[in-house]
Amino acid sequence: MNRQKKGGFWRFLALMAVLVLTAVAALMALAALESGAVKQAELDEALEKSRLERSVLLLADEKQKQILLQEQTDRQLEEQQRQLLQEDFLRRNKEVLLMLVNPWNPLPEGYEAQTVPIGDGMYMDERAAGPLKKMLEDCLAAGIMAVPISGYRTQEYQQGLFDNKVERLLDAGWSGELVGEEAAKSVAVPGTSEHQLGLAMDILDVDNPNLDITQEWTNAQRWLMQHCWEYGFILRYPNGTTEITGIIYEPWHYRYVGKAAAAAVTNSGMTFEEYLEKEK
Prior knowledge:
280 residues; alpha+beta; four-stranded antiparallel sheet; 8 helices; elongated
C-alpha cells in the first residue's frame, strides 16, 4: 500500500512536471510569436519608410534630371541664337562693306555710317579706321608720307561740295542743262557718294596737294596702288573706267571692302561694279 502511494506520488510529480514544462513551452512559444510579430511590424515599418525615402529620392532625381535637361536645352538655344546673331552680323557686315554706291545706286534710305574720329576733324567707318591707320604707317615706314584728306561726309557736306562744283562750272561757261551732269563726274551727287558710307578716303602724296592725274605719278600713290589691297582697300576709280563707275579717274580715292574682297577685286583686274556683277 505504501509502495502504491509512493508510486502514485511520483507519477503525480512527473505529470505536474510535464504540465509545467508544457506551460513553459507554450509561454515561450507565445513570447516567440509575439516577438516575431513585433519584429515583423518593425520590419514592415522600416520597409515602408525605405520605400517612401526611395520615392522621394527618385522624385528628386527626376526633378534634377529635368533641371539639367532644361539647362542643357537653354544652353543649346543660347548657342544657336548666338550663332544666328553672328551669322546675321557677318552677313550685314559684308553687305555694307560690299555695298555699291554710284550714280545709279544711291545710299539706302536711312543709312547711318558707324564712324569714329581718325584725327584732323575727319571720321571714318570703324571697320576701316584701323586698316587705314596701319596702311599709312607702313607707307611711312617705307619712307613715303601719304596724307588722308577726306573721309566720311554728311549729306549736307556733300551737298555743299556738289553745289560748289556746279558754281565753278557755271563760272567756266557751262550751260545750265549740262552743268549738273558734268559736275557729277567729279563730285558725286549727294546720296550717291562713297564718302557718305564712311568707307572711302581721299589720300594725297605729301609733296603734291593737287587732286588731279599728277597724283598717279607720286611715290605715295605708287605705293598705295601696289599695297592697298593688303589692308582691305581698292583703288575705286581706275583710269579708263568712267563709263562703268560714273566717276572720272581718281588716283587718290580708296575704298575699304575688307581684305578678302580687296584681294579678289585686285586680282580680277575688274572695277568694283564688274566684280559685284560677276559675283551675283
